[in-house]
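[agent] plan:
  1. take the single chain provided in the ticket
  2. run structure prediction with default settings
  3. attach structure tokens to the ticket
  4. add a short note for the reviewer (M.T.)
[agent] executing step 1
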Amino acid sequence: MADATDHPSAQPQAVEESPFPNDSAAQTGASMGIDQYEITKISEIDVYITKPNDYPHSPSKLLLFLSSGSGIHSLNNQLQADRFATEGFLVVMPDQFGGDPCPNSNDVNAYREENPTMIEQFKLYAAEAVQSFMIDMWLARQTPEKVMPLLAKVIDGIKEEFADAIANGGGIYAVGYCFGGKYVLELGAGSSKAGKDEEEGTVKTEPVIKAGALAHGTSITLKDLQEVTVPISMVCCENDPLFPDEIRIAGEKHFAEKGITNEVKVYPSVPHGFGVAGEYADPKIQEAQQTAFEQMLTWLKEH
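[agent] step 2 finished; step 3 output follows
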């Protein structure tokens, strides 16, 4: 079990800057009151696990939590996972980046604060351009070919270690935020592929999860949406450049045509990333954040 002083419920934490353009700052939230949490390993991959306080004395359901690029050590991501644990889910948040979380803007911000009047605008612009380049390079490294094998290893381990929770829920549930949203769709995909020879015929690939929910996903393609076969709920931001309207609308049309059980809600006047635990000054964002959580939670409980 992790040292309690390392957990966000133990002490106030500094605001974390989001590394993505047009994204909001990840901010500290209140304690969720969870006693069972730790960073450990499953199948040799780092994971953050948070459990309902009455588990295993009371049954729980298994929830795979796929985070934003800030990864499992982000206090805000841990808090968000804890919120689901308070609702009866045993939550496993894997390090889907293999120890390579997204670079953030701390270096640039520190440089700006330490040199408020002496830095020439050109130098500051150059530093920010380098950071943007680093993020682009990081995104280029985080491909499905890299991420999916990591998730597969964790899921195999989960099936052994938490078979009771999976059985109680009738399968694995998944939530994803930002980067993680794409991989909820990947895990919820089912497909039919031709076999290697005539005897094999058509090989069907079953989805890994029972149902999924995602908030302000990034790097999502129309193909990702078209391959989903499980019930899916999406929290979306209005005019979100990281999840363009034309892709979302085309996906909604596909869901309707194929009879995919779905729920899509677009939240106006909120920043990308608003759904992750945080204390925002704007009461409208606070309200939208709570509504988005309830949307995702209700979807998981009903499916």
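[agent] step 4 note for reviewer: Residues 211 and 230 are 5 Å apart (CA to CA).
[agent] ticket updated
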